[in-house]
Each structure stands twice: as structure tokens, then as C-alpha cells.
Amino acid sequence: MVNEVKKSEKEIHDSIMSLIKEWHEVKFSKKDFKPGETYVNYSGRVFDEKELLNLIDSSLEFWLTGGKYDNEFCEGLSKYLGVKHALTVNSGSSANLLAFSALTAPELDRINKRIIPGDEFITVAASFPTTVNPAIQFGLTPVFLDIELGTYNIDINKLEEAISEKTKLIMIAHTLGNPFNIDEVMKVAKKHNLWVIEDTCDALGSTYDGKLCGTIGDIGTLSFYPAHQITMGEGGAVVTNNSILKMYLNSFRDWGRDCWCPSGKDNTCGKRFGWELGSLPPGYDHKYIYSHIGYNLKITDMQAAIGLAQLDKLESFISARKRNHKAIYDALKPFENFLILHEATKKSDPCWFGFMIYVKPEAPFSKQDFVLYLEENKIATRNLFAGNILRQPAYAALKHRIVGDLKNTDLTMNNAFWVGVYPGIDDNRRNYMIDHLVKFCKKHIT
Predict the structure, then answer these.
(1) Which residue in 85, 174, 228, 436 is the catalytic one?
(2) Residue 407 maps to which CATH number?
(3) For burial by CB atoms within 10 Å, which of 32, 282, 371, 409 has the most?
């Protein structure tokens, strides 16, 4: 009987990787677009064999919590954004929860900036729920401002008026990747000593006055859900240049513990059994000392492995989104008498999340007519998230303030929708979508 030669670990690994390449080719080979049959999605995952190879490589190590891929991803994201600190979390919603929670740290009493229940925060009603939920759940009163038509970002004209002695925070999103007026927001925040959280979940790669969104406020948040600029399936991140806030972010993300050792590491501080905090016995294990009431919001290394491959594609994804957005804008330009087209905020260069179409009240067709036509022709449409969030059932009894009115928020809820611009919309899909956008307008106008 001939003895079998045992393969080395590297040989087995290489064999698996080779099979994964074959699997990608068979399982995910690009299918032909069939007009009228293939659905043109509003967004979705775009990937190749590299994401699968990274995913399988990380799973073979069976290091299930954050590890080498998470470290590499955070370093790459920090470098891309030009920020000191990037921490991954399990979703964009968790990123917003974490960013807000860090500002409730008791240590911030020293600078009189700790957020406490009963404080107020400024936001917009044309919002995604988890941009406002963390502050509401903590006991803050939201102060809602209206938005601008065309940019769908905060109307800053009443920003000063919205501030009271209880205001501690401005927390708003860059809507559909379009930056809000950061100059004015930061000017007012500095004047009144307010925190600013940039919800950048839709806007990775967008710039304002040459600066990347998410890096200008005190904390920026990101989402890596499949609809966003890059994906891990689920996942998100918080970024900041404030090293003090980074410590609180790290603590609230990791159960609220005082220890800052990464997973699998002990005694980074060199005095694991030498701390004396709270009313705990002297020398209580630092890994089990909790300075904040926190959570477990970490990701797995397998998610980070996918994100790392996606990060390499980010620039090409940004270009594709801009290209698709411009093509739709140019095609609909002749119909501006009846439509408000999606415009970039002044001084900005958006990495667009979608293309917003506002149907003017005087148009010979309605938003509903337009949406039904597109959906019937297998072109996906979406509303601007919650519309006017105060009209949602969950917020019916919410204690809040409104400064001015929410006229444009309601108009947007009733008259606007958006279509996709993500990189999966190739030339054939884009041309098909544009043909139907134009066809509908021409039919109803001429």
C-alpha cells in the first residue's frame, strides 16, 4: 500500500483559494440584462472574487472576533479619511448609538459638555429613524428644523433660533450623500459650544469644501449595509480626531469596560491588577471594571475581511455613482418646469446615494403616477426614508419642538422619490432606466 503524502497547511489553503475563484466564476458570473425582465435595483452589493477570498481566508483562521482584518480595515479607513481614529461596529445604527453615547460619558462634566436626560438636540424631521433614536431613547428632546427642496438637507435659516439653554448637540445626516451646509453648522456649534455628529452613513466619499464628510464634526458615523458605498453585509464605523472621545467610544462599544485591551490581549496597561476604581476592592481585574453603561457593538473579522476588499474599490464606486447621477440629471433637465432635480449643495462634491426626483404640484402627473410606472417596468424606487418622522406611528406621542414649520419636509414626503445610482447600474441598466424616465415625462407633458 502506497503511503499518501500529507499536504502542507499552505498547500491546502492554496487549493481552497483556487476553488473559491472557480466558485465565484460559476456562482456569481455576470448575467445578461434583459430589459423589462431584469429588475433595476435602487442599490445592492457589488463585489468580485476578492471579497470571497478574504472572507474564506478569515474564516479558515477561525478568529471570529475582530482581528488582523479588522485592524487593517480600520487603518485603511483612517488613512482614506485622514482621521486619527476609526472604530468598527456592527451597523450604521450602532454607529449612531455609539457616537451619541460617547457624549454622555460622566468624564465630560469636567468641560461642562456632558449630555444628560432633559437636554435638547437639533435635527431634521426628514430623517432616518436611527439618526434620532439614540438621543430620544436617552431622554433628550428633539428640536426639528425643515429641509431645503433640491438638496433635501437642513434649512439652516432657523438654526440659531432653534438653540436654547438646553441645547447640547446637532445630529443630522448628509442626505442621500449630499453634504449639508457644514460651514454654517460648525459656525453655530462653535459659537454655542455644541457637539456635532455627522451621520455620514449615506455619504462616504462625499466632500464639502474639499474636506471629506464625517471628518469635520466631532464624530462621524458610517454604515456598511449593502445599500451603502461599501459593504460588509452588516457593519459600520465611527471616526473622530478627538483622542479623548475615542477612549469613550471604545469603552461604550466594548461593554462599557474601563480596559482598552483588544480582543485576545491582556495587560496592555501593565497594571491589570493594580487599579483602584469605584468602590471595587483594590486590584480588581481591570478587564472586568466598567466605567460606562455600554454595549457589545463589535464586528467579526470576517465582516472586516469583506470590507477591506471593498475599501480598495471605493474610488471606482464613487466614480460610478457620480456618473450615473449626472446621466439622470442631464436626461431630466428638459423637464424642470415640472420636476425639481437633485442638486449638490454649494461647495460640495457628493458621492451620491441616490437620485431624488421631486414632482411639482403643478405637474400634469403625480409622484404616485411616476412611481407606479417605474415599478411596473421593474425600476426600483424609494421614498426619502421616514418622510416626516413625526407622522410615523412610533413618534406620535414624542415630546419635541419644531422651529418654523416643516412645509418642505411634508412636500418631500408627498411629492418626491428617488432612484438608484449605485455601481451595479451599468450602462445597459442606466440607459433602460433613463429611457423610461424620459418616456414617462414626454407622454404626460406633450
Answers:
(1) 228
(2) 3.90.1150.10
(3) 409
